[in-house]
Design a protein that fits this description.
NAD(P)-bd_dom_sf, KR_dom, NAD, SDR family oxidoreductase, SDR_fam, Rossmann fold, alpha/beta
Length: 255
Amino acid sequence: MNPTYDFVGQVAVVTGASSGMGFVTAKAFAEAGAAVVLADINEVALTSATDGLTAAGHQALGVRCDVADEESVAAMVRATVETFGRLDMAFNNAGIQVPPSDAADEPGEVFDRVNAINLRGVWACMKHELFQMREQGSGAIVNCSSLGGLVGLPGRAAYHASKHGVIGLTTSAALEYAPRGIRINAICPGTIETPMVTDMIEKGELDMAEAMANQPIARLGRADEIAAAVLWLCSPGSSFVVGVALPVDGGYTAR
C-alpha cells in the first residue's frame, strides 16, 4: 500500500501527462487533493485525460505544450498561475525514445531532436517553474531522467546523453535553490509498462524477456510505482532530500 498525502490547496504541473507515467502521476496528485495542470503536445489525448479527471471531481487543467519550445513552456506556466494562483510541485516527465543506432551512424537530427525534448525541454520547464517558485519561496520539482542517466548501453548514445544531462541540470539547480526553500530531485525509472515501452517492443527495439531479466525484481515496473516516488519527493516526507537521482528500476543499477 502506498502512503497517502494531503496536497489540498497545492498546485502541481505534470508534463507528458496524457498517458503513461505522466497521466498516472497527474491522477495521483489529483487524488491527493492537488489542482493539477496536465501538459502534453498530443491535444486529443490531453483532452481525454483532463476530462477524465474533471469528470471524477478533480481540479484539472489541460494545456497543450511543446516542451522543446521555450515560449510554449512559459505560456503553460503562466496559464497555471493565472488559473490556480500558484505552483507548488512539478513533474517534468515529457520525453521521447529513439531507435537504437550505432554511434557512428546516428544522424545529427536524431541527436538534436531527442535532446531538444529530453534535456532542453526539462531545462525550459524547470527554468519557468523556478521563476514562479522563487517568488513564492517554496516548491518541489522532480525531473524525469532514466536508468539511462546512470549507466550506458550500446546503441543508446543520444538518449543516454540526454538523460545524463537531466541529472546534471537537477543537481546544479538543486544546490542553487535549496537555500531558497525549493527542493529539486530526479527519478531514474527502469523499464516501465507504458505505451512508449509497448511501442518499442512491438517495433522490435526492446526484447521483453531481456528487459525483465535485466531487472533483478524480475518484472517490468508499473506507472503507479513511478507516481509513488514522485509524490514522495514532492511531499514533506522527503523534506531533507535534495539533489538526488533516485533509481526506481527494480534493482537494475544496483548490480
